[in-house]
Amino acid sequence: MERNRLQRVFRASWPRLVAIGILVGIWQLLVVVGVQSGGAGGAGEALPGPGDAIAEIGYLVHIGVLVPALLQTLERAAIGYALALVMGTAIGLAVVRIPVLRAGVGSLLAGLQSLPSVVWVPFAILFLGDFAVYFVVIMGAFPSIAMGLMSSYDNVPPLTFSLARSMGARGPGYYRHFIFSATLPGYVAGMKQAWAFSWRSLMAAELIIGSTASTGLGQILDNGRALGDLPEMFAALLAILVVGIAVNDLLFAPLERGLLRRRGLVPA
Amino acid sequence: MSIALFRRPAVLTVEADEAFVTLAGVTKVFGNGKRATTALDSVSLELSKGEFVCILGTSGCGKSTLLSLVAGLDKVTSGTIEIADGRPAVMFQEPALLPWLTVRRNVELPMRLRKVETDERNKAVNRLLSMVGLIDFADHRPHQLSGGMRQRCALARALAQDSELLLMDEPFAALDALTRDQLHDDLNRIWQETGKTIIFVTHNVREAVRLGDRVVLMTPRPGRVAQIWDVQITRPRELDSFEVSGLAHEITARLRAGAAGNGAQ
Q1: Cα–Cα distance between B165 and B195 in angstroms, integer?
Q2: Contact assessment for residue A177 and residue B109, using Cβ atoms and an 8 Å cutoff
Q3: Which residue range(s) make up the domain with A179?
Q4: Which CATH number fits the domain that encloses residue B214?
């Protein structure tokens, strides 16, 4: 029994392990070849290897820098994402239910979604002060949520709405049993995409805005660059990558998979 | 509110001239100006309570349009539709089950929307699921059911709607012949048990003769009532019985004559 479970875990995870192995191998190869920083006229410091980066992570945890920074960043991400979720849902619902808004705001949303949210950083710094980070995250994430809701609504079979009308569904019952339920898969897909956007927006914001208030992962990376501390930079990069993947794999991916399986949209 | 599932009385207590559903001069025009097409032209029809009426016609004769007008999903261009008992329940050609709900949840949805109490709701759902033979599949999801079972579930849901009038839009057209035959038997039994008034739209002549108290033949472009037959054959009827075949043959002949007439125009 126990053995079977191990086998199953192995079967599910080996492609990913191999991929990571290849990536680490290439990294190590670059170190062996002797890639140096600085380019023309730079300091010429050697590229740290995967081992160095992991050792640096251990050190940063040990001196009490990494964990508070990680928590700080996660807090920003959570608050920004929650605000984006509220805003994206409200706008998405409004656009779906009010035809005039759809014509006006629909295409604008698509444009906003393709706009790299880092362009908001200069404006946010000028106008918003401490709230700047959240603003950038919100602008990065909310269009995906609104668009997810919108496109999901468009894909609901018209018969579902005929059914709702023939049952006389209206008000909260109509929203709960028909609109929200029917659009849930696209909404969750939008949430998942919005996480990716909000995470990258947050990193851009932290890198550019710098360590004015308190230190996050982005500021560790920027700090490493400023001090020419390459292992610190790579440690921060690894941490950022791992958090981004972990939130997706542990939170959003299972949520989406469970939802689709219950509806018979993927094999059980 | 309760779910009325009383037995059909042996003798109809409703007087014959007391119409339950009245269509008077119902006309439906789609589009306007030169592009306008008349889907229905002055259709008049009366149904008494508990009657099973089949509306028969080739595709494009406006029979589905007629049904969606009665269902209140579309508005008449002129004429009137009167229903003695509020909003009718509708069953579509596709089961239109909500894929995120179990069979039980799908069936109880109309009662949830009406805010029927949990106890009463559970009792009613169990009774309906037994009636359509799905009680053992109550916790399955629609994608785990066969086509016939999905339509049974849709039927149970329509019955849960607490409406005396049930509208059915070619509900068995997508099923294989054996499953359809079984569902005809079940529908006949359920109609007799519940005493619902049914308008059943179909393009299948034998199906109409097998199920209906009356068969209303419609001709296309524009949709009009061509002829109405009273079906006097004793129930339950068999699809290949001599009587059903005989009347189906007669109606088919009339249908062909109508088509030939249209072709000559």
Answers
A1: 10
A2: yes
A3: 56-262
A4: 3.40.50.300
Give φ, ψ of B226 to 5 degrees.
Answer: -90, -45
Question: Does the CB of B75 have a partner CB in chain A at under 8 Å?
Answer: no
CA B211/CA B205 separation, integer angstroms:
10
Tokens of A124: 């946010």
Chain A window 171-230: which residues touch B at a Cβ cutoff of 8 Å?
173, 177, 181-182, 184
Q: Which of A165, A167, A263 sits opposite B110 (nearest CB)?
A: A167
Q: How far is A156 from chain B (nearest CA, A)?
A: 11
Q: B16 is written with which tokens? A: 């014959």
> What are the tokens at A130?
């401490």
> What is the number of H-type helices and E-type strands within chain B?
7, 9
Residue by residue, pLDDT tens for chain B (265 residues) are 444 444 444 444 444 557 889 999 899 998 888 888 888 988 999 999 999 999 999 887 888 899 999 998 899 999 999 888 778 999 998 999 998 899 999 999 999 998 889 898 999 999 999 889 899 998 999 989 999 999 999 999 999 998 999 999 999 998 998 899 989 999 999 999 998 999 999 999 999 999 999 999 998 888 889 889 898 888 888 888 888 888 989 989 988 887 655 543 3
B157 with B228, same domain?
no
Q: What is the CA radius of gyration of chain B?
A: 19
Same domain, B174 and B255: yes
Range of the domain at B103: 99-162
Q: Is A243 exposed, middle or buried (0-12, 13-18, 19+ CB in 10 A)?
A: middle
Tokens representing residue A1 in the block: 């029994």
- B189 at A interface, C-beta within 8 A: no
Q: Spell out the residues 6+ positions from residue A46 whose beta carbon is closer than 8 angstroms to its own.
A: A31, A34, A35, A36, A37, A230
Residues B18 and B80 in one domain: yes
Q: Closest by alpha carbon to B193, among B170, B159, B145, B242?
A: B159
B131's tokens: 């009636």
- Closest partner residue to B161 among A167, A177, A181, by Cβ? A167
pLDDT the model gives residue B263: 42
* Residues in chain A, total: 268
- Is residue A29 included in any domain, yes or no? no
Dihedral, CA of residue A194, residue A197, residue A199 and residue A201, to nearest 10: -130
| pLDDT score, position A38 | 66
From B117, B147, B162, give the residue that closes a domain: B162
Peptide bond into B236 cis (omega under 30): yes
| Domain annotation covers residue A18 | no
Read off the CATH number of the domain in which A210 is found. Answer: 1.10.3720.10
Q: Residue A79 and residue A198: Cα distance in Å, rounded? A: 11
Name the minimum distance, in Å, from the CA of A264 to any CA of chain B.
6
Domain end among B162, B178, B194: B162
Mean pLDDT for A255-268 is 80
Rounded CA separation A261/A19 (Å): 27
Residues B27 and B131 in one domain: no
